[in-house]
Specification:
The chain is built from four helices and four strands; from the N terminus they run βαβααβαβ. The chain is α/β, with parallel strands linked by helices and 96 residues long. The radius of gyration is 13 Å and the shape is globular. The model has no long low-confidence stretch (mean pLDDT 90).
Length: 96
Protein backbone atom coordinates (compact mmCIF):
# COMPACT_ATOMS: atom_id res chain seq x y z
CA UNK A 1 0.00 0.00 0.00
CA UNK A 2 1.34 3.39 -1.00
CA UNK A 3 1.23 6.14 1.61
CA UNK A 4 0.04 9.56 0.43
CA UNK A 5 0.45 13.06 1.83
CA UNK A 6 -1.07 16.47 1.07
CA UNK A 7 1.55 19.25 1.28
CA UNK A 8 -0.06 22.40 2.65
CA UNK A 9 2.20 25.43 2.40
CA UNK A 10 2.56 29.07 1.50
CA UNK A 11 4.04 30.01 -1.86
CA UNK A 12 6.94 31.67 -0.04
CA UNK A 13 8.06 28.21 1.12
CA UNK A 14 7.81 26.60 -2.34
CA UNK A 15 11.53 25.74 -2.67
CA UNK A 16 11.46 23.76 0.59
CA UNK A 17 8.20 22.04 -0.36
CA UNK A 18 9.51 21.03 -3.80
CA UNK A 19 12.56 19.44 -2.17
CA UNK A 20 10.34 17.70 0.39
CA UNK A 21 8.15 16.38 -2.43
CA UNK A 22 11.20 14.98 -4.27
CA UNK A 23 12.43 13.35 -1.05
CA UNK A 24 9.02 11.82 -0.37
CA UNK A 25 8.79 10.50 -3.91
CA UNK A 26 12.26 8.93 -3.67
CA UNK A 27 10.96 6.97 -0.67
CA UNK A 28 7.84 5.77 -2.47
CA UNK A 29 5.44 8.25 -0.86
CA UNK A 30 2.78 9.72 -3.13
CA UNK A 31 2.26 13.45 -2.54
CA UNK A 32 -0.35 16.03 -3.48
CA UNK A 33 1.22 19.35 -4.41
CA UNK A 34 -0.84 22.16 -5.92
CA UNK A 35 1.45 22.87 -8.87
CA UNK A 36 1.59 19.18 -9.79
CA UNK A 37 -2.16 18.59 -9.50
CA UNK A 38 -3.81 21.82 -10.64
CA UNK A 39 -4.45 22.77 -14.23
CA UNK A 40 -5.60 26.05 -15.76
CA UNK A 41 -9.35 26.34 -15.36
CA UNK A 42 -9.60 23.96 -12.39
CA UNK A 43 -11.67 25.03 -9.41
CA UNK A 44 -9.06 25.75 -6.74
CA UNK A 45 -11.37 24.94 -3.84
CA UNK A 46 -12.66 21.74 -5.45
CA UNK A 47 -9.18 20.44 -6.33
CA UNK A 48 -7.82 21.17 -2.85
CA UNK A 49 -10.79 19.43 -1.26
CA UNK A 50 -10.35 16.41 -3.54
CA UNK A 51 -6.65 16.37 -2.69
CA UNK A 52 -7.27 16.38 1.05
CA UNK A 53 -9.99 13.74 0.65
CA UNK A 54 -7.63 11.41 -1.21
CA UNK A 55 -4.60 11.25 1.12
CA UNK A 56 -3.57 9.45 4.30
CA UNK A 57 -1.62 12.36 5.80
CA UNK A 58 -1.96 16.13 5.78
CA UNK A 59 1.44 17.79 6.22
CA UNK A 60 1.22 21.46 7.08
CA UNK A 61 4.48 23.34 6.63
CA UNK A 62 4.67 25.78 9.55
CA UNK A 63 6.65 28.93 8.81
CA UNK A 64 6.26 32.68 9.27
CA UNK A 65 4.77 32.67 5.75
CA UNK A 66 2.24 29.91 6.35
CA UNK A 67 0.88 31.09 9.68
CA UNK A 68 -0.17 34.31 7.95
CA UNK A 69 -1.77 32.48 5.02
CA UNK A 70 -5.55 32.19 4.98
CA UNK A 71 -5.28 29.33 2.45
CA UNK A 72 -3.09 27.25 4.76
CA UNK A 73 -5.44 27.92 7.67
CA UNK A 74 -8.45 26.90 5.55
CA UNK A 75 -6.74 23.70 4.36
CA UNK A 76 -5.81 22.82 7.93
CA UNK A 77 -9.40 23.44 8.99
CA UNK A 78 -10.65 20.94 6.39
CA UNK A 79 -8.13 18.32 7.55
CA UNK A 80 -8.97 18.84 11.22
CA UNK A 81 -12.68 18.54 10.47
CA UNK A 82 -11.95 15.23 8.74
CA UNK A 83 -10.25 14.02 11.93
CA UNK A 84 -13.10 15.26 14.13
CA UNK A 85 -15.60 13.45 11.92
CA UNK A 86 -13.64 10.20 12.18
CA UNK A 87 -12.23 10.14 8.65
CA UNK A 88 -8.83 8.48 8.33
CA UNK A 89 -6.37 11.34 7.93
CA UNK A 90 -3.48 12.25 10.18
CA UNK A 91 -2.23 15.84 10.50
CA UNK A 92 1.55 16.23 10.52
CA UNK A 93 2.94 19.64 11.47
CA UNK A 94 6.36 20.28 9.91
CA UNK A 95 8.27 23.21 11.37
CA UNK A 96 10.34 25.04 8.79
Amino acid sequence: MTVSVFLSHNHGDKDFVRKLARDLESHGVRYWLDEAEMKIGDSLIKKIREGIDSVDFFAVILSPNSIESSWVVNELDVAMNHQINGKPIKVLPILL
